[in-house]
Structure formats: structure tokens, C-alpha cells
């Protein structure tokens, strides 16, 4: 939805580095939101009766392969 321009979202920077680098996504600089030192739960649910779509497969693979954590603009980990 973010890629489609339908709003904003909190996304793990490590999963969208390429999109940030090529300008597909832009990081909002919000003074009311200076850090993300709290954990965000992410769940992926799907019906076994139908195959996963492209985005669902991508997210499932990323979540399985990568410990999700956030880094600030200076590269420092902001969560435990």
C-alpha cells in the first residue's frame, strides 16, 4: 500500500534499503516521531486453500530469513 502511494507506514529500514536508495520510498522526518525504541509486532496470516501472492511470498521469506529490528538514521539499533 505504501508503494502504491496510499499513505505512510512504519517499516523496518533493513527491509526497504533498496527502495529508500532508489527513491521509490521516502523517509518522513517527523519531529513528533524521533525514534522507534519500541517493538512492533508483525503477523502474516494466509489461507492454506490458496497460494500466496507475490507480496505475501516476499514478506514470508524476509520474515523467515531476517531478524527484524530497526536502525536509526545513524545506523544504530533502536530495539533490543
Describe the structure.
- With 80 residues, the protein is mostly helical.
- It has a domain at 13-65.
- The chain has helices at residues 17-21, 54-65.
- The model has no long low-confidence stretch (mean pLDDT 77).
Computed over alpha carbons, the radius of gyration is: 14 Å
* Quaternary organisation of the protein chains: single chain
Low-pLDDT segments: none
How do the helices and strands follow one another from N- to C-terminus? HH
> How many H/I helices?
2
Assess the beta-strand content as a share of residues: under 5%
Spatial gap, N to C terminus: 28 Å
Shape: globular
* Helical fraction: 10-25%
Q: How many runs of DSSP E, i.e. beta strands?
A: 0
The largest sheet is: none
Structural class, from secondary structure content?
Answer: mainly alpha
Mean pLDDT: 77
Keywords:
0% strand, 80 residues, single chain, 2 helices, 21% helix, mainly alpha
Fold topology:
Blueprint: H1 17-21, H2 54-65
Question: What would you say about this model in short?
Answer:
The chain is mostly helical. The protein has 2 helices and no strands. Helix content is 21%, strand content 0%.
Amino acid at each position: 500500500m505504501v508503494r502504491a502511494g496510499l499513505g505512510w507506514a512504519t517499516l523496518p529500514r533493513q527491509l526497504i534499503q533498496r527502495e529508500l536508495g532508489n527513491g521509490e520510498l521516502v523517509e518522513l522526518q517527523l519531529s513528533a516521531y524521533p525514534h522507534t525504541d519500541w517493538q512492533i509486532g508483525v503477523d502474516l496470516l494466509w489461507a492454506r486453500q490458496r497460494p500466496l501472492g507475490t507480496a505475501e511470498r516476499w514478506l514470508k521469506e524476509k520474515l523467515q530469513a531476517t531478524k527484524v529490528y530497526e536502525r536509526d538514521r545513524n545506523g544504530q539499533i533502536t530495539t533490543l
